[in-house]
TrEMBL record:
<dbReference type="InterPro" id="IPR009023">
    <property type="entry name" value="HMG_CoA_Rdtase_NAD(P)-bd_sf"/>
</dbReference>
<dbReference type="InterPro" id="IPR004554">
    <property type="entry name" value="HMG_CoA_Rdtase_eu_arc"/>
</dbReference>
<comment type="similarity">
    <text>Belongs to the HMG-CoA reductase family.</text>
</comment>
<comment type="pathway">
    <text>Metabolic intermediate biosynthesis; (R)-mevalonate biosynthesis; (R)-mevalonate from acetyl-CoA: step 3/3.</text>
</comment>
<dbReference type="GO" id="GO:0008299">
    <property type="term" value="P:isoprenoid biosynthetic process"/>
</dbReference>
<dbReference type="InterPro" id="IPR009029">
    <property type="entry name" value="HMG_CoA_Rdtase_sub-bd_dom_sf"/>
</dbReference>
<protein>
    <recommendedName>
        <fullName>3-hydroxy-3-methylglutaryl coenzyme A reductase</fullName>
        <ecNumber>1.1.1.34</ecNumber>
    </recommendedName>
</protein>
<dbReference type="GO" id="GO:0004420">
    <property type="term" value="F:hydroxymethylglutaryl-CoA reductase (NADPH) activity"/>
</dbReference>
<keyword id="KW-0521">NADP</keyword>
<dbReference type="GO" id="GO:0015936">
    <property type="term" value="P:coenzyme A metabolic process"/>
</dbReference>
<dbReference type="InterPro" id="IPR023076">
    <property type="entry name" value="HMG_CoA_Rdtase_CS"/>
</dbReference>
<dbReference type="InterPro" id="IPR023074">
    <property type="entry name" value="HMG_CoA_Rdtase_cat_sf"/>
</dbReference>
<keyword id="KW-0560">Oxidoreductase</keyword>
<dbReference type="GO" id="GO:0016126">
    <property type="term" value="P:sterol biosynthetic process"/>
</dbReference>
<dbReference type="Pfam" id="PF00368">
    <property type="entry name" value="HMG-CoA_red"/>
</dbReference>
<dbReference type="InterPro" id="IPR002202">
    <property type="entry name" value="HMG_CoA_Rdtase"/>
</dbReference>
Length: 406
């Protein structure tokens, strides 16, 4: 690449019309290009971008994660724990990294982790896995729709072969048809191993859709028909799952609840029923929980996940009941879309977040690291739910925020 090392020269070429804003990396290294864009934005907006421009890794390492880079936003990163996670993919004491700007969040989750640890740790399991993409096809009428559904059921092996030719790692698990008038939606579900897998699923489904068009009378309208459903609240993800469905639970002795949480198992169980279950139902909520999104978002930011998929990740149900005088507590996340390879996981700071959990890169066997990450996030969510419900039970929620100055 031939070019300039002077950001001012690059910025001048954009202002003169000789270069476009997005073309700067073709004429300079990534850091120089980012500096030139900062100059242009500062001139247009009057803002000072000195802090945004003070980032801790070469801009070229963010090349696959962003376009038109001008710098980096730094979100405070903390840890909670260590907490015992008794998972199928991970086991032992671990710190959980959370990146957030919400004061008191880590203090609350850390309290939950402490109580879980006193109870012997959380048990966590991934119960279902599969990334989905659902194209929509147009047919002439319902008879043709039924014919397409029958063809798909008879030729799933052909679709599997076409889809898997596009990837070295992905595996097509099944195809589920849905008919609405002259629309046929085919919900493809893939095992994407340690990748979150949205791009993998999209490319593979494109190849399978070509086969459908070549072999049937159906016409592809859109590669995504919103029945996937990605980055939108959707009941189908709550019922069928997307990404990883993961549950964490713990049995907490009564004396630990009373001494550490200053409430009782009965109080927490009642609050959970009246707030998380009945209250959410009355509100028409898809998530029956207190604040699972808080932990999911913070751990997503800390480990390089797609932040928009917090929408699906917070689709969770919290349960609480008294068993032999003790507190049984669980949280089930239906559609947690996570990966430990690709996307934002390649950024140096986010990769270090994965290192804290010991799950950076591909797992052995494939998929084990992403499963472990899901188990850790579920454990963090469990801790957050427990602490918040206990604060409500002891009526300490507002005082905790006041004492921390939040």
């Amino acid at each position: 690449m031939s070019g300039t090392s002077d950001p001012k020269d690059l910025a001048a070429k954009v202002e003169s019309g000789d270069l476009r804003f997005h073309e700067l990396e073709e004429h300079a290294d990534a850091d120089t290009a980012a500096a030139a864009r900062r100059l242009l934005v500062e001139e247009q907006s009057g803002a000072s971008l000195d802090t945004v421009g003070d980032y801790g890794f070469p801009a070229e390492q963010a090349d696959s994660a962003i376009e038109n880079m001008i710098g980096a936003i730094q979100v405070p990163l903390g840890v909670v724990g260590p907490v015992e996670v008794n998972g199928a993919a991970t086991s032992g004491e671990t710190y959980l990294p959370l990146a957030t700007t919400e004061g008191a969040l880590l203090a609350s989750v850390n309290r939950g982790c402490s109580v879980i640890d006193r109870a012997g740790g959380a048990t966590a399991r991934v119960t279902k896995s599969g990334m989905t993409r659902a194209p929509v096809f147009r047919v002439a009428d319902v008879a043709e729709a039924e014919a397409l559904v029958s063809w798909v059921r008879d030729n799933e092996a052909m679709l599997k072969e076409a889809a898997e030719e596009t990837t070295n790692h992905g595996e097509l698990l099944d195809v589920t048809p849905y008919v609405v008038g002259d629309n046929v939606y085919l919900r493809f579900r893939y095992d994407t191993k340690d990748a979150m897998g949205m791009n993998m699923a999209t490319i593979a489904t494109r190849a399978a859709a070509d086969v459908v068009e070549a072999e049937t009378a159906a016409s592809l309208v859109a590669l995504s028909g919103n029945l996937c459903s990605d980055k939108k609240p959707a009941a189908i993800n709550a019922v069928e799952g997307r990404g990883r469905s993961v549950t964490a639970d713990v049995l907490i002795p009564r004396d630990v609840v009373e001494e550490r949480l200053h409430t009782t198992p009965e109080a927490i169980a009642e609050i959970n029923t009246r707030k998380n279950l009945v209250g959410s139902a009355k509100a028409g909520g898809l998530g029956f929980n207190a604040h699972v999104a808080n932990v999911v978002a913070a751990m997503f930011l800390a480990t390089g996940q797609d932040a928009a998929q917090v929408v699906e990740g917070s689709n969770a149900i919290t349960t609480a009941e008294v068993k032999d005088g003790n507190l049984y507590f669980s949280v089930s996340l239906a559609s947690l879309e996570v990966g430990t390879v690709g996307g934002g996981t390649k950024l140096p700071t986010q990769a270090e977040g994965l290192d804290i959990l010991g799950v950076r890169g591909g797992g052995d066997p494939a998929g084990a690291n992403a499963d472990a990450l899901a188990e850790c996030i579920a454990t963090g969510a469990l801790a957050g739910e427990l602490s918040l419900l206990a604060a409500l039970g002891s009526r300490h929620l507002s005082s905790a925020h006041e004492s921390l100055g939040r």
